[in-house]
Design goal:
Helix content: 10-25%
Distance between the termini: 10 Å
Order of helices and strands: EHEEHEHEEEEHEEEH
CATH superfamily: Class I glutamine amidotransferase (GATase) domain
């Protein structure tokens, strides 16, 4: 499976996701944001980091990069798109995903491992997970507070477009288990065609037991299957 990781000034998780993809036997290429053509790809990844120093809004300037026109074209053609953390923010800035990522509820940067629940395990990104499986995955963001309007929220629920929700180790979801104030504890969403996933947690950091754990591996295994 061929993957492309888009690299922006300020990306700091591009190498992490590349290592994870290569570990899982993806044929990966790194693509600089000023390129105007993408290599043939089955998966395009917008990695985490602080593109352009998060000036204006997180992901706002990156969303206007030259390569983004190609990403949008491929997304509309059905290519799989994964946006992690800053990549999720970029996806909302481009309109590929609806909603926005606001400042965390405590107005502080959060970097810690949290529990998330798999809400939809019937997509190309999640089919190797069990429904309601609890994962322990790292988050590291200042703007991870997902918000959208009530009409779109109803659509997310109706069409099973919520990928992950924050929870505790027992799977309970409430205000105390929500690290950033995200609407209904949402940690990741799909677009209507389910070929685009935006998520704040970092699965690429959870692929080596010696470093953390392997709770992120099945996202990549799902894509390969």
């Amino acid at each position: 499976m061929r993957s492309s990781v888009i690299v922006f000034p300020g990306s700091n998780c591009d190498r992490d996701i590349a290592v994870a993809l290569e570990k899982m036997q993806f044929k990966n290429q790194m693509v600089w944001h000023k390129e105007t053509k993408l290599p043939k790809s089955d998966l395009i990844v917008l990695p985490g980091g602080f593109s352009y120093g998060d000036y204006l809004r997180s992901g706002a300037i990156a969303g206007k990069s030259l390569i983004i026109d190609e990403v949008i074209k491929e997304a509309n053609a059905g290519c799989l798109i994964l946006g992690i953390c800053n990549g999720f923010q970029i996806l909302t800035e481009t309109g590929l995903l609806k909603g926005t990522l606001l400042r965390n509820k405590n107005l502080k940067f959060i970097n810690k491992d949290v529990h998330v629940k798999v809400i939809n395990n019937e997509t190309k990104f999640s089919n190797k997970y069990k429904k309601n499986q609890i994962l322990n995955i790292n988050i590291a963001h200042n703007e991870g507070n997902y918000f959208t309007n009530s009409k779109h929220l109803d659509q997310l629920k109706k069409d099973n477009l919520i990928a992950f929700k924050y929870c505790n180790e027992d799977g309970k979801i409430n205000e105390s288990t929500n690290p950033n104030g995200s609407l209904e504890s949402i940690a990741g969403i799909y677009n209507s065609k389910k070929n685009i996933l935006g998520m704040m947690p970092h699965p690429e950091r959870m692929v080596e037991e010696i470093v953390s754990n392997k709770d992120g591996i099945n996202l990549f295994s799902s894509l390969l299957s």
